[in-house]
Specification:
One of its GO terms (molecular function) is N,N-dimethylaniline monooxygenase activity. Keywords: FAD, Flavoprotein, Monooxygenase, Oxidoreductase. InterPro entries: FAD/NAD-bd_sf (IPR036188), Flavin_mOase-like (IPR020946), FMO-like (IPR050346). It comes from Aegilops tauschii subsp. strangulata. Its EC number is 1.-.-.-. This protein has about 170 residues and is mostly helical. It folds into 2 domains: about 120 residues, FAD/NAD(P)-binding domain (3-Layer(bba) Sandwich), CATH 3.50.50; about 40 residues, no CATH class. Helices cover about 45% and strands about 5% of the residues. The protein contains 5 helices and 4 strands; from the N terminus they run ββββααααα. The strands form 2 sheets. It has a two-stranded antiparallel ribbon with strand order 1-2. A two-stranded antiparallel sheet has the order 3-4. Strand 3 and strand 4 form a beta hairpin. Helix 1 packs parallel to helix 3 and helix 4 packs antiparallel against helix 5. The longest helix has 18 residues. The radius of gyration is 18 Å and the shape is globular. The protein starts with 18 loop residues before the first strand and ends with a helix. The mean pLDDT is about 90.
Amino acid sequence: MLSSYLYDFPFLGDDSTITVDDNCVDPLYKHVFPIEVAPDLSFIGVPWKVIPFPLFELQSKWVAGILSGRIKLPSKDEMMEDVKAIYSRLETRGWPKRYTHNFSGGYQFEYDDWLAEQCGHPPIEEWRKLMYAANAKNKAARPERYRDEWDDDGLVALANEDFKKYF
């Protein structure tokens, strides 16, 4: 399955160190920073098959922390090793390069929690992770009706309890 959009950055020009090959934006450290120009340029929202708003918020906070000097990026060599590790995992799975930014299969929460840790925030709430897993299971079982038929009262109760701390 392809992402719902194709990456294209014509404003960067042909001499950019950032390329798009098989819909993979390359090389991006943690799917955000082009290594050669980090931290001067960043991309928020490149990953797909995600729960977008928590991801985008955490990416934005991470970039803000880096730009303010509160958070330090690793060396360019270390960032490139991280990118190569992602490509190696794809190759091991037999996945094409265009799946580089595909976060299906639960990777999003690992990534979100890493971003949260970098920013000094708590990890994504467990009830959110459970609700996402329940939704995926419901969608697979009832693709035509998954939005209308739910068995998640317990998860909604957990969410309501969590929300009380904000009021």
